[in-house]
Amino acid sequence: MFPVTQGRRSRGILRPHEWPGEAGTAHAGGTPEAVAPAVALVSTFQAIRQLLDTEPRVALNAVQFVAGRLHDLQRRHRQLMTERVERRVARALLRLVREPGRRVDAGVEIDVPMSRQDIAKMTGTTLYTVSRLLSAWDDRGIVQSGRQRIILTTPHALVALAEDLPDR
User: Fold this and answer.
1) Between vectors from CA 147 to CA 141 and to CA 148, what angle results, nearest 5°?
2) pLDDT at residue 3, rounded to an integer
3) 152: nearest Cα among 89, 83, 106, 95
């Protein structure tokens, strides 16, 4: 799923049992849209509030979820501020292939349509930079990329880039 805000898609993959963000608050900024068959439970803010008041375990789970989201945002902010673009893009591709990935003959495919512009937005860089990196990685046999399709052909090489490991 990804939010659609003001008519524009802003990619963010939600995995099973994840919440789409601040839905139900005054700051809700988008509408989740499924890119694959999905079931979503929808409730009113009052019903959720009542559930949190009467079920302490649910409230604790909500706090843990929000704390995890905050930790993830802090980590991604630190990466945007301190890491090289090549490393950020490699990490994003590995994150995307982790859950919605599927094995194909050539390697592991990111199983949702993903444009270079989507990846640029996710990693805080430009379309040009993502295109240049994917083309270079394609030439090196690390990925195969096409129109909204990316296959990791040599995932361990991408891990080396993401973790900034020395070349062998």
Assistant:
1) 95
2) 47
3) 106
Residue 162 DSSP symbol: H
**Cα–Cα separations (whole angstroms), residue 155 to 16, 106, 133, 139:** 24, 11, 15, 15
Give the pair of three-digit tokens for residue 62: 């909500």
Structural fold of domain 85-162: Jelly Rolls (2.60.120)
- From the centroid of its chain, how far is CA 127? 17
* Four-CA torsion 6, 10, 13, 18, nearest 10 degrees: -40
For residue 43, give the 3-state DSSP assignment. coil
**CA angle 160-129-94, nearest 5°?**
35
Contact between 122 and 114 (Cβ < 8 Å): no
- Numbered ranges of CATH 2.60.120.10 in the chain: 85-162
The answer to whether 151 touches 107, Cβ cutoff 8 Å, is yes
Q: Which residues of the chain are modeled with pLDDT < 50?
A: 1-5, 23-26
